[in-house]
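Residues determine shape. Next comes a sample protein:
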Amino acid sequence: MSQTYHVLHETLYRYSAPVSLSQHLLHLTPRAFDYQRILHHQIDILPTITECEEHVDWFGNAARWVAVRQPHETLRLIAASTVEVFPRPLAWRRAGGPAWEDVAGLLAAFPSNAPLDAQEFALPSAQIPLLEEIRRWAQVSFTPRRRLLEATRHLMLRIHQEFRFDPKASTVSTPVAEIFKRRRGVCQDFSHLMITALRSLGLAARYMSGYILTHPAPGKPRLIGADASHAWVSVWCPDNGWVGFDPTNNCQPNLEHVLLGWGRDFSDVTPMRGVILGGASHEVEVHVTVMPAETRDFTELLTEVTARPLEKAEVLVES
């Protein structure tokens, strides 16, 4: 049985001086694929954008470039979507796949019979180098002739057990080697670490950007804007295609993960990045809501978020 969600992602920039021009690249449109269908999507921006161009990036993600060419001291963007998520095959969560060395050998062969996208995701990228120290650490999970998906599940468990979730321990640019040394970070860091381990072993893995449904404490209401963006990993297995792993939560994505897009690392699918002219210093706030569609009317929910006074917005941080 599928699950339908309303997803609202609000980004608010406050500048200490007027900005005369701002340009932003957005990866905030959920991706349609075999296990996800987009029922509705809109992006609202204040002040009104002057230019907008939509395109599909190299990895097949929907992207949007926008420009605001009028002076402004705040910029508010709300991406609102309704998506239907379908269950992944149960075999993904049980299968072991071929021996991991055979998969690494297939990817390394020249010419290779592996799909081109799998070969691409076996290479290092801007935020994910191939590190010998991490490769040796990962080999505790990837013992000789162990099945690929079984070994990857074990690696996911070790990251969950050995690393501490700490939103103050890193920034979006913290190197993966530093995360490995400190043994703490957030979902982006744990995903980068897991991908580094997999690629350092010659395997193909991609960075998955999106959201996850969170559950309020018993007896507590679900709060608007209290969720966060999320990241996880997908590994290529010849028998099963791309199979997801979430090291932050030690689970394989199923009905509670909503996908925005995928890339080699975070830099390929940053939700919002850009350049501005003016502005001096700035503050940024991010509010995310993921809510089962049956619990709230979409229009009512969007109206509530849009009506929030800009000067009273609660500061939240993406994980």
